[in-house]
Hints:
Elements: E1 2-7, E2 20-24, E3 43-46, H1 56-71, E4 74-78, H2 82-85, E5 92-97, H3 103-114, E6 120-125, H4 130-140, E7 147-151, H5 156-161, E8 171-173, H6 187-192, E9 203-209, H7 218-222, H8 226-229, E10 233-239, H9 243-252, E11 256-262, E12 278-280, E13 285-287, H10 289-300, E14 309-312, H11 316-327, E15 335-338, H12 342-352, E16 363-369, E17 388-394, H13 404-407, E18 414-415, H14 417-439
Parallel strand pairs: 1-2, 1-8, 2-3, 3-4, 4-5, 5-6, 6-7, 9-10, 9-11, 14-15, 14-16, 16-17, 17-18
Antiparallel strand pairs: 11-12, 12-13
Amino acid sequence: MIVISVPASNNQLKLKNDEYLEYRLDLQTEAGKTDHLKIDERTIITWRQDTENKDQHKQKKELFTLLVEQTTCLIDIELENYHYYQELSKNMILSVHYDDFDREKIQATLQEFHQKKARIYKLVVKADKYSQLMALREMTEEFPHDLFVLSTGALSIFSRIMYHYLNSIGTYLGIDGQYTAPNQIDRDFFYLLKAEQIDSQSLLGGLIGGAQIYQSRGYQHYNYLREFTENNAFYLPFFTDEIDDLLSFIRESGLHFYGFSITMPYKYMGKKAIPANYYLPNKEIYGNTDIIALREGLNKLEIKPQNSILILGSGATAESALIALKENKHQMTRVSLFARNKERVQNLNNMYSTGDYKEKVGQYDLLINCTPIGLQNEDLSLFLNGIVFKKLIDLPYLLNGITPICQQIKPNDCFSGSEFWQAQAEYQLAIFIESIFEQKKEGKHLRLPSSILL
């Protein structure tokens, strides 16, 4: 049961397939107004209580009674107000919204749900950890009636994608720019992930990282490949601000995982000394296809061992660039790093025997941008302070188009973020497909370059 939730001011939305439409009557200029809406049996009417308006219950009950009689629509009623509307229970979604995660309170609420008649029940809590999602699944497993289970916390998007896992009969989606709840998932993003097709036997993987993961092109790339669609496999966002919590979920959730891409700030997860950009949980293997992609960039630009190179940044991708150069037998004294974190730069200089950055050396054969400058369409050239370069590897990419700095370089002299992403993704795809086939026990194995593995 997929519900699209919109402010009641939006009366132009066209539904897909078997979607339901929730109108929030409190999110419009004139609360409670319905004469501009098309309401039928696939409509949910919600009017959150105004605590300062003591007469609202009477007005609300009269409206809801009329709408139910005329249209057989569903109505969303808060648990504390049940006694005002209990005669409408056949069309009622009985709901509770908590802005915390209290296990005892959740269990008590489920018991109270048992004692009150409703068409559907709805439990909304603030879940910020995967361990809390596992607890929600456990607590709702034996609930005998139709139940929505949702989160408004940091894992709101994941909870709405994986609603089946939470024993929920469906999920609530929003429209970008018109969200009706905190951290709501966008309807288009939900369908981009093909999340409505996920079931208990699905093979799951995706991108582990911080808030930037929702801007990845990986979802459209992987989820529409034949090897994924034919094997019930999905590539999803796995946001976390506590990596051990997510790793425990991967081990203990009971779900089936084929593998993960890794982005910042977790490229050193697994207590690896050098950065990784993918993880295969079934084999506890970490690897780095960024290094392979960077070597492809160096080869495309025909970089020679003696060429002078400046790397901007000191994070995981900067270290991957150093590893790629070292594997290409580059003269590492011809490589310099420039970044704000001077201590980290010095550590990398010591580890890879690179040359010190000299401010007076203004021209380089190659510039490698390992900073995020460009992700928001910024022009890197405005930050270079006189640094001149002949060729460029620019790791940031835009979902549509290329960064401003790449637009200023001849295509043959530039390895763009899009080219870099595509190159590393091709190697990851081979790795993920092998893992998918192994778990499907089809016995198909792909030969992987040994330098991919850490």
